[in-house]
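Need residues for this backbone.
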């Protein structure tokens, strides 16, 4: 991994921001001394200060001293943050990466100046173990910056570049999607208890089976139905179970949930 030469500020160091910082260091993309973390209560960041990260609650001062700025606060907190840092923004020097749901690049450029380089990124909580599915998009940032942001997020998982108008959809499928697949695993483990396994056994079996199913698709580059066909024999137990689930709305409820989450994700940020 080619090491980044500049300095990185992560504003709003919650789970996503901290996981990204750890990933960048673990992959030798950057040293802790190149990364500054901010949040209102910096007591929680003391362990990172001991590891050599910069730690501060002064967002403007950190931005002034950085090249790449990751906006990792909640959408509802973003306008206040942008107001704090606007006086120190240097459009020739700064690249902004926003992970705030439902906030367009144009929204941020309207607050910070129209020439500002802004890229949106939507990771998910599997970023904590380097297994995020991160979607990135921009409306005007350079291809060089897009390549740099791709490299950054590849340190914590897989990256797909998409059109910006699909970012709220990416939020539903990839970020909210973690919860949907977790709930499916939980339900499978409860089914396991009903048919005779202890709860801890059933959960372990469901988790590994789900992981195996996902890895089959990733490594074999096959379609789910191809793999399903290999498990379903005529008049067999798999097809009976699958059809029972479908009769009860298994696929349609998942599709409806993803659609509703996408609608909600687009309404989290208010421009005022």
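Answer:
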């Amino acid at each position: 991994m080619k090491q980044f030469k500049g300095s990185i500020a992560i504003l709003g160091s919650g789970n996503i921001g901290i996981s990204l910082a750890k990933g960048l260091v673990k992959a030798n993309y950057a040293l802790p001394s190149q990364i500054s973390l901010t949040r209102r209560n910096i007591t929680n960041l003391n362990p990172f200060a001991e590891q050599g990260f910069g730690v501060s609650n002064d967002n403007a001062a950190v931005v002034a001293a950085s090249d790449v700025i990751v906006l990792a606060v909640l959408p509802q907190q973003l306008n206040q943050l942008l107001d704090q840092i606007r006086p120190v923004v240097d459009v020739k020097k700064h690249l902004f990466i926003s992970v705030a749901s439902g906030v367009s690049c144009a929204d941020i450029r309207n607050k910070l100046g129209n020439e500002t380089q802004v890229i949106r990124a939507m990771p998910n909580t599997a970023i904590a173990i380097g297994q995020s599915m991160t979607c990135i998009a921009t409306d005007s940032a350079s291809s060089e910056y897009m390549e740099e942001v791709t490299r950054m997020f590849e340190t914590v998982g897989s990256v797909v570049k998409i059109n910006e108008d699909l970012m709220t959809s990416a939020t539903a499928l990839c970020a909210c999607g973690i919860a949907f697949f977790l709930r499916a695993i939980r339900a499978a483990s409860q089914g396991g208890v009903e048919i005779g396994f202890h709860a801890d056994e059933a959960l372990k079996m469901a988790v590994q089976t789900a992981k195996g199913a996902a890895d089959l698709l990733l490594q074999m580059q096959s379609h789910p139905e191809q793999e399903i066909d290999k498990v379903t024999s005529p008049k067999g137990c798999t097809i009976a179970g699958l059809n029972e689930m479908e009769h009860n709305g298994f696929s349609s409820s998942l599709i409806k949930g993803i659609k509703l989450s996408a609608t909600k994700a687009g309404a989290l940020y208010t421009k005022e």
